[in-house]
Write a structure and sequence with these properties.
2 copies of one chain form a homodimer. In chain A, 38% of the residues lie in helices and 19% in strands. The first copy, chain A, is of the alpha/beta class. The longest helix of chain A has 29 residues. The first copy, chain A, is globular and about 55 Å long.
């Protein structure tokens, strides 16, 4: 044992603190952590022992505190605030920007707020990141707009109408990507951007408005299943646990050769009408009715996962669509049952 | 004469004020009014007698007070401020959003600031517009990115790399268009958006960095003219007075059938090397040297003016390129001469 190892008391303690590996004692911030995806990411973040504090900021616009109520963890702190005006007395080692509505009826109703949450949110969150810290952003396959090629590789620049009815979301995501990649180029930034393809699963809002959850809540409510247009438009539906695992692998590994945005999704493309039929079948044969096509609804969507396979070897979407829909249906059923039970309890008390 | 017309005194005055046509007594705000284009628009705005107040807000990032020093007009008020934080004790009847750098070396050096000026600037300016007021925004042909078709109609959705080195400008413009068109859809807005194609002329900064002014200042400084790549990339160069006239016609007319973004530019496409040669010829044969191609420099750029001809009958770019370059050269020469004279005066005084 040499002299160095015989140091005792405050000096040794100080040295220990100073020499802690980078991985230890991480303060982490997630914006939009009460949302569908954000809350699942909170679950994953809290599995990491080096995360000593996880601050979740959410204005509960589309997020819901019900999604985080199971998090009985002293490291977890929820702050109800817009991301644009969120203040903190310290900086963060990792920042996850999940603050955005993702469903057309929500972002089309409040386009300025959608643009602000993404872009002004990102500008604010960059200020809260420690120098050398990591910034992760969930972008979307919607940056590709109408797909002129299929599957869509990350190099497909997109075919988006920047004056159209879906533009607040699509262009907010594109401009936020631009902000982040250009910030990396000019100032340096450990940046992770995923482009997610149609994620579904538990913790989707009942009134979210996207296909799978919509069909399920309609069917469970005894209503007809409504399909926009003829339903031949297809999507690549990714079950949330698969997508969250892909994100965790991409966001938490320290070194990568690949620096661009990463497609994450399920390669299996299924038409909207097939989903409607499957949900109808599972719920006792609810009828399907067709509505006017949604404006500028992409005809199809399928991720090119060539880069994902190189960057995240071994990762793929494992939950088959049929299984994922059943699990989601079960979750919505439990929620309805719980609500009904609570209602009955209230009624009995009254 | 009936009883109504015999009213006198304060009541009549009040009635007169209340019944003033909408066109009278306009408070106008221009953001970026000290810039190249913005200052020319200030000149035009002050020609309108119904404009009773013109507030110009500019942070002088790329703008220059020299561009407005000739404006001896009591209606004109300059406020040095970022557009994002500009405050006013009243709202405006018309708002013109010209606040953005437009030259690659400027926006590539400060991408976050560029995105903020456009998008956060637009969010702020929308708050300063009277209900029912008019909002005008100068967008750009850069929303088209690499042109997959030529000429580019407004319906060409663009081929822009939202992670590339020009993305802060291109995507800021696209997202601001999205914000404005979606604000019109959801809240109503008298909106005018122009997509300008490569404007040049007097009041360009000496250090602006774009081709024509760059070549002229290099040649006048006795330096070689530097061309990025082989110079075969072409642009449609519009002389500033032509473009400003097009904007004035589009911005100031009260009714239009056309509600989309409007291409404004010169249809005559000229290669960068041809411009370099012409400037060299005009300035005594300065040599031309070639530099590495600029990253993601569009190969060509040409406006489809089909809609402009319908919406603005009689308008077109009248100043031939050769004449416009001569005028711009003359303006830069006068500036140099004035600077030199001022320098000699200072030297003589010292």
């Amino acid at each position: 044992m040499n002299a160095r190892n015989r140091q005792n008391g405050p000096l040794r303690l100080l040295k220990e603190i100073m020499s802690k590996p980078d991985g230890a004692n991480k303060r982490v911030l997630i914006a939009g952590g009460c949302g569908f995806l954000g809350s699942h990411l909170c679950d994953e973040l809290l599995k990491r022992p080096e995360v000593t504090k996880l601050v979740c900021v959410d204005n509960l616009w589309t997020g819901d505190v019900a999604n985080i109520k199971h998090l009985n963890d002293q490291r977890f702190h929820f702050v109800e605030s817009d991301v644009e005006t969120f203040r903190s007395d310290h900086l963060f080692d990792e920042v996850y920007h999940f603050a955005s509505p993702a469903s057309p009826p929500w972002y089309m109703a409040e386009p300025a707020r959608t643009i602000s949450a993404n872009i002004v949110g990102a500008l604010r969150l960059l200020e809260l990141l420690k120098p050398g810290g990591r910034f992760a952003y969930t972008s979307t396959s919607e940056v590709y707009g109408e797909p002129l090629v299929t599957p869509q590789p990350e190099s497909f620049r997109g075919w988006v109408d920047c004056t159209g009815p879906r533009s607040s979301y699509d262009e907010a995501k594109r401009a936020t990507e631009a902000l982040l990649f250009e910030t990396r180029r000019t100032r340096g930034l450990d940046l992770r951007v995923t482009r997610l393809f149609n994620v579904y699963g538990p913790r989707t809002r009942e009134d979210d408005g996207r296909a799978i959850s919509n069909f399920i809540t309609q069917a469970l409510g005894g209503k007809p299943i409504t399909v926009f247009g003829d339903g031949t438009q297809s999507r690549s539906w990714g079950y949330v646990s698969d997508l969250v695992e892909g994100m965790a692998r991409f966001f938490w590994r320290d070194t990568f050769d690949y620096l661009g945005p990463l497609n994450l999704g399920n390669e299996r493309e299924i038409s909207v009408i097939d989903i409607a039929r499957y949900v109808s079948e599972l719920t006792g044969g609810q009828p399907i009715v067709h509505l006017e096509p949604a404006p500028q609804d992409p005809t199809n969507r399928c991720p090119d996962l060539t880069i994902a396979r190189q960057v995240l070897p071994g990762w793929s979407c494992e939950v088959p669509f049929e299984e994922g829909v059943r699990r989601t249906l079960e979750w919505f059923r439990e929620g309805s049952a719980a609500q009904q039970a609570a209602g009955e309890t209230r009624a009995a008390r009254a």
